[in-house]
Amino acid sequence: MKKKLGLTVYGIDGAKDALKEAKKRGVITKLGDVSKSLPYEDGYFDFVFAGEIIEHLLDTKSFLNEINRVLKPSGYLVITTPNLARVDDRIKFLFGKTPRHTTPIHPYLYLHIRPFTFDSLKKVLKLCGFDEIALRSHIVAIEFNNQKNCFYSRFLAKIFPTFGATLIVRARKI
């Protein structure tokens, strides 16, 4: 985004190594904890991207209220998060199996505190002062036992984004 659009890009993270890498790429970085107050003034940003973070936070409303605070009026937020209601998890649930995003023994997804469906994310976004909420997904994925036996479709993700593996949600600050 920085190179293609000529934007000034800011990043906040709790991992110093991630910040070092971002700084090499021209990002203005800050060490911080997004579960607390963001270290920016009110109305500072036109656009905020929160990728694969909201599912790790206990207090979703505080996080979204902070983003709302640092956005300019009519600013945009884009959030990405794994979809609790992806098509293969829906099928697993019907057969009494644990959806992958809620299993405590998954190699890394056990770190997800609060999984989302589009409906639950949309409701909390509205509650926190956002509208014009739009959904996309990049791929519908159906994994059978392991990742060697999979079905992936970008086409189905365009038609049925609520079945997609990842929720990509855009919302405008009211």
TrEMBL record:
PANTHER family reported for this sequence: METHYLTRANSFERASE, RHODANESE DOMAIN-CONTAINING PROTEIN
Domain of life: Bacteria
GO molecular function: S-adenosylmethionine-dependent methyltransferase activity
Membrane-spanning segments: none
Methyltransferase type domain span: 4-79
Descriptive protein name: Two-component response regulator
Source organism (scientific name): Candidatus Woesebacteria bacterium GW2011_GWB1_38_8
SUPFAM superfamilies linked to this entry: S-adenosyl-L-methionine-dependent methyltransferases
InterPro entries listed in its UniProt record: Methyltransf_11, SAM-dependent_MTases_sf
